[in-house]
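Today's session is about reading a structure prediction critically. Students often jump straight to the picture, but the first step is always the sequence itself: look for stretches that repeat, for charged clusters, for runs of hydrophobic residues. Only then move on to the predicted structure, which in these notes is written as discrete structure tokens rather than atom positions. Here is the chain we will use throughout the hour.
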Amino acid sequence: MKRLKKLIKEEITRLQEVQYPAPPEILDVLKNKLKMNPLIRYVENLKAINSIPPSYRVFLHNGEFFDIIYEDFSLLAKIGSKEYFLNDIDEKNYAIKHINRLLTGSKVKPEGEEGEEGGEELGGDLPDLPPPPPAPKSEEPEA
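Below is the predicted structure for this chain, in token form.
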């Protein structure tokens, strides 16, 4: 009986984690318009988002992400707070540049994970500086 319960739980878990193929228009945009071919080099995961209009979230290998949103006349890439219509050549080029900054930029540490070393955020190890000397005391008596 315990074995049957275990098998049922495993089957339910397996069914909940079914992976579906990505829509061909999303793959086409990523490969051809956004120049991310081969996808495996740049994209770690692609996930459908429950939103209106329908959209997909593209997770990159360095932990960054952006969204591709279906619009009435075009696909829209939302990267951070910026939105780029991918049928417009100028906006598509700006989207490519923005994605390149996501891919090549260094990831900012959350506030709680900052180290105690002072020079870490500058990219090098700086020597510990001695504390500033105390202010000189005046020899004159106060009146």
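Discussion point for the tutorial: The radius of gyration is 26 Å.
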